[in-house]
Amino acid sequence: MRTIVITGGTDGMGAALARHYLAVGHRVVVIGRSGAKFDALVTTTARRHPSAPDRAEFIAADLSLVADSRRVVEHLRENYDRIDALVLAASFIRQRRHVTPEGHEASWSLFFLGKYLFVTRLADLLRASERPVIVNMAVPGARADAIDFDDLEMVDGFTFRRSNAQQRRANELLGILATEQNPDLGYITWGPDRLVRSSFAGEVGMGMKVAAAVLAPLLGRSPEDAIRPIVDIIDTPAPGRAAYRGARALPLTGGAHDEKDAIRLASAVEKVL
């Protein structure tokens, strides 16, 4: 029995992955904000797989808060001796800059600081697995120069586009750090290759609201269909870094100073954590 940890596992593709791995007999730890959604997910799965509740755990957390991410990491370290797959799927879209009660820019905190904590502080539990894999749902392909090292939390000149590109690139650099520490680890940045039917949680603009309400039901694929390439990656992991859109492998974005940038990023983040 493998242990699968999923952030954002009560909605969309995260929930679909949780249902799948409970159905096939693995242990699943879901981190999210809605215990009611988790209970419904487990209840539905248990109708056909009665042992599902015994293999499911929910940890309530707001992962835009560093303290919550740290608390979850400590819980996992205290209660599990191995993590086989870590899926980083938590999402809350913000079009505007928002500061958390801890003083961090909310999107940067959710989409990178929290992920950094999970990847680096759970490295020992991943190393204990024979075939460890991290699937980071950070759409690959951001420019190599997308990170503003002098203003990581975008106090000046915040735009959704800049913020999104910086988070994505930072998560690619995080893969360099993770695989250098554990050469057996598979680290995949992944994004869907077409629209997926989901709630688009967050403070979204009118265009995204229209897509969620009108286009997604008509043109989008179901979360169950969209996760098929992720399941293949988790079930047959390969060591090293890789990037995918759907089932299509993409070349990794390369910059002139990738390893130095990864170390510089880690140094900056450790100072605020």
UniProtKB/TrEMBL annotation:
Query: Which keywords annotate this record?
Result: Oxidoreductase
Annotated coiled-coil segments of the chain: none
Q: Which InterPro entries match?
A: NAD(P)-bd_dom_sf, SDR_fam, Sec_Metab_Biosynth_Oxidored
* Keyword Oxidoreductase applies: yes
Protein origin, superkingdom = Bacteria
Kindly name one Pfam family recorded for this protein: adh_short
The family database entries (SUPFAM superfamilies) matched by this protein are listed as: NAD(P)-binding Rossmann-fold domains (SSF51735)
What's the protein here called? SDR family NAD(P)-dependent oxidoreductase
**What organism does the UniProt record list as the source?**
Nocardia fusca
Taxon lineage: Bacteria, Bacillati, Actinomycetota, Actinomycetes, Mycobacteriales
